[in-house]
Amino acid sequence: MLSVQDLNITFTLYGRGLAQKQLTVITQLDLDVKAGEVVAVVGASGSGKSLLAHAILGILPDNAQVSGKMLFKGEPLTLNRCQDLRGKAIALIPQSIGYLDPLMHVGQQVQRTAQLSGLSRPAAKAAVDRTFARYRLAAIVQRLYPFQLSGGMARRVLVSTAVVSQAELVIADEPTPGLHPDVVTETLNHLRELASEGKGVILITHDIEAALQIADRVAVFYAGTTVEIAHAQDFSNNKIRHPYTQALWRSLPQNEFIPISGSQPTPDALPDGCLFSDRCPWVTQECRLDRPPFLQVRGAPVRCIHADR
Amino acid sequence: MQLGIAAFILRKLLRLALLLIAVAIFSFVLISLSPIDPIDAYVGADMLQISPEQRDIIAQRWGLDQPMMTRFILWLRQLASGNLGTSIIFNQPVSTVIGSRFQTSLQMLAIAWLISGALGLAMGVVAGARAGSWLDRAIRFYAYTLAASPTFWVALLLLLVFSVSLKITPICCATPPGVLTRDVTVWQRLHHLILPAATLSLIGVANIALHTRQKLIEVLNSDYVLFARAQGESLVGIIRHHGLRNIILPALTLQFASLSELFGGSVLAEQVFSYPGLGKATVEAALRSDVPLLVGIVFFSALFVYTGNLIADLTYQIVDPRIRIGKSS
Ligand code: SF4
Fold first, then answer.
1. What is the domain count for chain A?
2. pLDDT-based confidence at A229, cuts 50/70/90?
3. Is the predicted pLDDT of residue B45 greater than 70, yes or no?
4. Which among A178, A210, B189, B257 is most buried, taking Cβ atoms within 10 Å?
5. pLDDT of B42 above 80
């Protein structure tokens, strides 16, 4: 359904006077999502997860240049096509209630979303009623303001926005931050349900555990690139390939709980060659020469020249 | 919520009382220290015909021989019973003068207030939506220039252009000269208040336009607008559904709070156009030492400005759901 290949995003920053700075925040990013599938995008903050979402929706700021290939249903996703598709075929589930208008009733906002997706006013109204009922949101919730919602209600309202739009591809950007575990599970189940209905779901999160609960595949982002796209079961089967993925996995409390030393490089100080080379335990001279290409190792793509060892 | 608002109003009324007392003390002290002799001001040109003995009698009748504190208390008592005294130049009770003059000003002030609010809001929205464009720059240039130009200068300029050169507006007053008040038509009244109202509108626009522009830019950079864009909302749609909703409240507050500037501006504008409103009465009272009227106007304007600010605060309490509902729950 969606395929992103070799995506690069560069920001032009204006300093003093006429000085300009080019800042490449996403390099060689790859991702693909099929209908009926949940693909988790996992990475630390600053790894380019949200930017990917904004690029797919065509809502990057004006000073961003995008290169690389993005295909939606086989057709290139140009800026014009993004504009036509967003809110209709592609929907975003935002992080928090801060993404709702603070002065508008939530029912009205979800209805607006439905109308933007192409429904008539009565049809949109009906879609909101139906969706709120589906997520056990009482009718009076429609007449509440965002600040009046509890954490759980807020989540369900945000998921509703994607459901009323009938979108085929749903991008959930960090949908479970600081939530009660029950609410996390509930939210994740809602996303899984959407996939079962045939939608493609991208789950953007920094929480590997949450991702593994529902994802079919997990794309691991590091410093603006995709280092590996693993199958979900690879993690427990000890088949994950990239040293960064392995380190992430080991850092979980139920595993060895060893934090990764060092920190992700900032976009203005990327290392030569492999982006992970300054922290990698397996690093060799060769790693520093070129950005590693995607290699198929044990049935999945990985950006590491020593992954098959 | 009812209780919250009641307490809020009670607190505000208490503040108002304190404010009025402070105004009373200041006015009294200032006028006691001023070189205006109340008897001279009262008697005016007939001064030469009064003997010193007669003066003393008047002073005694008025209690001018009493110590300052006693005079203040006596005056305060009269004030509290609603007696503002008699205007010397109009020879009418001060409250009557203020009442009728304010009515004349009110139409003009109301029109200026509405036009400057609506126009300022519109300019702010356009500038904010197209931030950085030449249109935005032009609007900002206008706003900064107007904010910096004196009211009487703008008034004179309008007078020169529209009344003197183009001759499409009257040169002075609120009604055509030589026409009885009851024969004046609504159109004639409107015709006469165009220029003073325009002066105040042109200047009043600046503040609200700049403020609205800033607020709209904030809104357009907000997360909820990003989400709206992700849903395919266009710029016009964003302004219609989210922009206006989120900028109208601060704009309304600002506009109510700006009543003080409007009132101050009317003093100058009415002077230039000889528009017989409260602003002109202020200047006359000051020039001709009409102390009772001047003090009355000081009190009235304090009340007027305070009411504006009170409404500004109250709109937030009543209109913003985060405060209205947030307080009760
Ligand atoms: S390419 Fe080299 S540096 Fe990069 S992850 Fe693989 S082993 Fe480590």
1. 2
2. very high
3. no
4. A210
5. no
In angstroms, the first-to-last Cα distance of chain B is 9
Residue A263 phi, psi (nearest 5)? -140, 160
Residues A214 and A101 in one domain: no
* B35 in reach of chain A (CB within 8 A): no
Residues A37, A200: Cα–Cα separation, whole Å: 5
Contact B245 A103 (CB under 8 A): yes
Chain B residues near residue A92 by CB distance under 8 angstroms: 227, 230-231
The CA-atom distances, in angstroms, between A113 and each of A100, A101, B162, B304 are 11, 12, 51, 45
- Domain spans in chain B, listed from the N-terminal domain onward: 2-80, 94-320
Last residue of a domain, one of A112, A135, A166: A166
The answer to whether A38 faces chain B, any CB pair under 8 Å, is no
- A87 — alpha (psi -120 to 50), left (phi > 0) or beta? left
Residues of B in contact with A94 (CB under 8 A): 223, 227, 230
ipTM of the complex: 0.90
Quick check: helix, strand or coil at residue A207? coil
> Which class is domain B94-320?
mainly alpha
Q: Which residues of A touch B245 (CB under 8 A)?
A: 101, 103-104
Verify that A45 and A118 share a domain, yes or no.
no
Instruction: Report the separation in Å between the CA atom of A250 and the middle of ligand 1, taken as the mean of its atom positions.
Output: 17
Band the pLDDT of B78: cuts 50, 70, 90.
confident
- Give the model confidence (pLDDT) of A5-51 as tens digits: 999 999 988 877 677 888 888 888 889 999 999 999 998 887 888 88
Cα A262 to averaged position of ligand 1 atoms, centre (Å): 15
User: Closest partner residue to B322 among A83, A92, A147, by Cβ?
Assistant: A147
* Structural domain that includes position A184: 2-89+167-302
